[in-house]
Design brief:
This protein is an all-alpha fold and 545 residues long. 73% of the residues lie in helices and 2% in strands. The protein is built from 25 helices and three strands. It has a three-stranded antiparallel beta sheet with strand order 2-1-3. Helix 1 packs across helix 14, helix 10 crosses helix 11 and helix 13 crosses helix 23. The longest helix has 53 residues. The radius of gyration is 26 Å and the shape is elongated. The two termini are 36 Å apart.
């Protein structure tokens, strides 16, 4: 089943060209952040209401509705005459993404044979990262086309349209049908998924599960507030939420979606000015993300969820520290400025902050960019003194008319490519562990009757954390510098490492009943566990066996 939930990453490349077409977007960091993050804001509401839609409309119709909303948003963005129209389109796209992000895994799990259910849910992660890779290919394909960014954003409607058409031929979730007292329809669908001798067993298990859910709902009440209160008062669910929410928030606060949304911009921070070159290099990071997801599918049942996330976070921390140091060195070795060269473009074209500074002779390219000006590189060698100019569209044209390179995001750097290589190591550390495991963990750590509610709560926290990070990234770059921002993410990854070590148990190889008993007893990692806790853990396994 096609997955639309990561196609908004097309914005990462489109943003480079939106800045070229709309001068106010190029000048206003908050407007760039808003264009990117409004899809995330829409996804929060989509995820929050997705559960209600699933219960009322069914999984199939909910996915199809998400496709319609997503397609509408993509077309609105492609036709946008002003930046605020792009923002409206981003919100619509986000609503579709939010609904799809929680419904697609649920639908896949409920229509899959039990023996391959885990593998198919994990494959969903590969399709998502594959979609990211495809989005960068789309960006690269339209770099020379008229209306560049409009094609990049508009073509994202095609997968949603294809998914809508394909969904017409797919069945509804048999579990949802059973809940709607449509047992015969559910049995017909199960007979297409399971062997004849297994259908009755599945129907019996479904009957017991649904009846247990109905009994639980009857004791707690039907309102959302009562359901939340009942879930929080349940020790198993509460401890599951501690773990589930922790891994989802940590996944975002290591900075991954700033890398995916802004990767071409980050490459330009490293001193690579060309839009098309930046897009090509960001394509490499997206490909590594897809490769890392394949590694996760191979390793997750061999090494375990908990260990894979902890090792992943160690790699992320090391990568971010080195990346921060690399950007710091690049900033300190930025090309110097030439006062004479700057004035040669005319007084109105020169950066006012530079010409009026009492210590202008000590300025370099990085200080010029920090004042929201731009660096016009020396025509003979990018690393020789260049001009500090006003970041205006007409001035950029004057610079390029002399066959000089215009730098507005980062400065020429001999070690810029090193930053891109380290960014690749960061992706490889991220994707197999903290990139994939949180979604798998949240599909198995809650009791069956609370799995939808628990997964939905964790998904909302994921999208909220995503919004906070993506909305603040460019502002943090401006306030802390690129080096300081990545060092901050390194600090978050270290905090996340500690939180996961303390709160998240290992669920590798455990049946759902075993996970529930493990959480009922309570999880305590070394050195906080005792011999008594260890013996209790053994008793849990023996009880289930």
């Amino acid at each position: 089943m096609p997955n639309i939930s990561l196609l908004p990453c097309v914005i990462s490349g489109a943003l480079l060209y939106i800045r070229d077409d709309f001068e106010q977007v190029d000048k206003k960091t908050w407007l760039q952040e808003t264009i990117v993050s409004m899809a995330v804001a829409g996804a929060i509401f989509g995820a929050a209401f997705g559960g209600y839609m699933n219960d009322k409309m069914g999984r199939k119709k909910t996915i199809m509705m998400a496709d319609v909303v997503f397609t509408l948003g993509a077309l609105v963005m492609a036709a946008a005459p002003f930046p605020w129209v792009i923002i409206i389109g981003r919100v619509l796209v986000g609503l579709g993404v939010g609904v799809a992000s929680m419904t697609a895994p649920l639908y896949i799990s409920e229509v899959s044979p039990a023996k391959i259910r885990g593998a198919l849910v994990s494959t969903n992660g590969l399709l998502i990262t594959g979609g990211q890779f495809l989005s960068y290919l789309v960006n690269l394909a339209f770099t020379k086309a008229p209306g560049t960014w409009r094609w990049m954003l508009g073509v994202a409607a095609i997968p949603a349209i294809v998914q809508f058409i394909l969904m017409l031929s797919l069945p509804e979730s048999p579990r949802w049908l059973y809940r709607q007292s449509k047992q015969e329809e559910a049995k017909v669908i199960l007979s297409k998924i399971y062997r004849p001798e297994e259908v009755d067993d599945e129907m019996k298990a479904m009957h017991e599960s649904v009846e247990a859910e109905k009994a639980e709902e009857g004791s707690i009440g039907q309102t959302l507030g009562q359901k939340l209160k009942g879930a929080w008062s349940n020790d198993v669910v509460r401890r599951g939420l501690y773990a589930g929410i922790t891994v989802q928030v940590v996944q975002q606060f290591v900075g991954i979606n700033t890398v995916m949304y802004y990767s071409p911009t980050i490459v330009q921070f490293a001193g690579i000015a060309s839009n098309s070159t930046a897009l090509a290099l960001s394509l490499v990071t997206s490909g590594l993300n897809a490769f890392g997801t394949i590694l996760s599918m191979i390793l997750i049942d061999r090494f375990g969820r908990r260990k894979l996330m902890l090792v992943s976070l160690v790699g992320i921390f090391v990568s971010l520290v080195i990346l921060s140091a690399t950007f710091n060195q690049a900033a300190h070795h930025a090309p110097p400025l030439s006062y004479k060269d700057s004035l040669s473009f005319g007084g109105n074209s020169t950066c006012k902050a530079y010409t009026s500074a009492p210590n202008f002779s000590s300025w370099n390219c990085m200080q010029c960019l920090h004042e929201e000006c731009a660096f016009c590189a020396n025509s003979e060698n990018e690393f020789l003194p260049g001009a500090c100019l006003a970041a205006e569209k007409n001035v950029r044209g004057m610079c390029r008319a002399d066959n000089r390179v215009w730098f507005s995001q980062g400065c020429p750097s001999r070690i810029g490519i090193l930053a891109v290589i380290i960014l690749g190591f960061y992706i490889i550390a991220y994707a197999p562990g903290i990139g994939t495991v949180p979604w798998v963990l949240n599909s198995e750590i809650y009791p069956l009757r609370f799995r939808g509610l628990g997964g939905g709560i964790a998904a909302v926290f994921n999208w909220c954390a995503n919004l906070i990070v993506s909305e603040s990234f460019l502002s943090m770059i401006k306030a802390l510098g690129t080096s300081g921002t990545f060092l901050l993410f390194a600090g978050f990854s270290l905090i996340g490492l500690v939180a996961i070590y303390l709160l998240v148990p290992e669920t590798k190889g455990l049946q759902f009943e075993e996970v529930e008993k493990l959480l009922q007893k309570g999880f305590r990692p070394f050195p906080f566990n005792s011999k008594k806790d260890v013996s209790k853990g053994k008793e849990v396994m023996e009880d289930v066996a």
